[in-house]
Fold this sequence. Notes:
4-stranded antiparallel β-sheet
Amino acid sequence: MAIRVDPPRVEARASGRTICRLSPRDEARWRALADRAAPLIEARLPDGVVADRAVRQRHGWRLAPMRPALRRARRAAASLAREGAVVATDVEAFFPSVTPETLERALLAVGAARGDAAAAASMLGGWAEQGRAGLPVGPAASSILANAVLLPVDLAVAPVRFLRWVDDYLLPAEYPLERFDEALAVVGLRRSERKTVRGIGGVWQAPYGR
């Protein structure tokens, strides 16, 4: 099922990051897909996932407010760091690296309808053909769907206490990074070695720009 999509409009923020503005038609379709997937994703996310959690509203779903989530993340990170050494890391180029096939598999895995999974993959493929590969950064729906993509990684890590903010992870230092890398590889992603840091104490350094 091929779905025609419009080219996203790319805007640069003062922080230097870029976001995509979808056409009204694409935004509505993308949001509708995320609305239907949100309860399926939320039911499976471990407590360690603190950013971009979806909450029900009168019409569909929305992202929980960022600042309270960030405060919670900082408290949880400080608590985790007090228990011993930790490793902070993230996923290399996460949003641009999500392929249509990866997104479709992720949605099917949480129980989404096959038509919805195929439609989401088709939209992602259409934008990739227009030069915007991966999940479009900016729309709230992309953040909801991103949690489906990373869910297998979260579940692989979940036997130990961890924290995830978007695609940034805070792990106990004794957790084998090889196991983390294997979980990422299953969904076609890889860890950023440049952003992998071991330490004791410190404060959660989640970006404010999203």
